[in-house]
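Q: How would the structure tokens look for this protein?
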Amino acid sequence: MAANDGLDEAREFWTKYGVSTSVQDALTHKFLTTGSIEATDGYSEPVSVTSGSFDGTPATIATFADGSISVTAAEGPTDSTPGTVATQSASVTGCDAVSGNSARMRYSGCRVVGDNGIYRIGFKVTYETYFGAANAEIKGAGSATAKSGTGSITDPVRDLYRTKSTRTTKAAVKYRSDYKAWSNQHQTDVYLGFWLTYNGVRSVTTS
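A: Here is the predicted structure in token form.
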């Protein structure tokens, strides 16, 4: 594919996560033709999900049927993989951890990010977990950013903010941006959400 097709950053991202040159060429053609790939279309389900790293932060890597990938990560306790419970003895990457007392731990300014090579969206979140108890809480969120080398993307706006968790409802914060591909003006909504269960299980979603 042409070197000036605007997808240099995307190819660098795909190479970093092991996408073959032939698949990259197919993704490039698909994106330039339709303005979308499965990692960005908002409705395709991944065919595999593995653990990896994003700039030193434990991450979840979702691979789709067309070979595109979506990487999500949230800074926090490093002895917990994404989607598992944080323990009191955990070390923390990228954000501050302060123990309020023997039962409470606050994680401040933790980066949450989603990247698929076409665009990246992120924000920072502060949350608390309670050891031996329930009702983990989100205490704040902000510093949201979005960028793309393949189209225009608006500044993220908060789409959902639920601070308290219960046994049946997760605490959550979600941001949304609007993306338009330069190649053919295809538009899509971009989402990134951070979810926290009552006992401190955290996860990140892009829908």
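The two ends are 30 Å apart (CA to CA).

The longest helix spans residues 21-34.

Upvote if useful.
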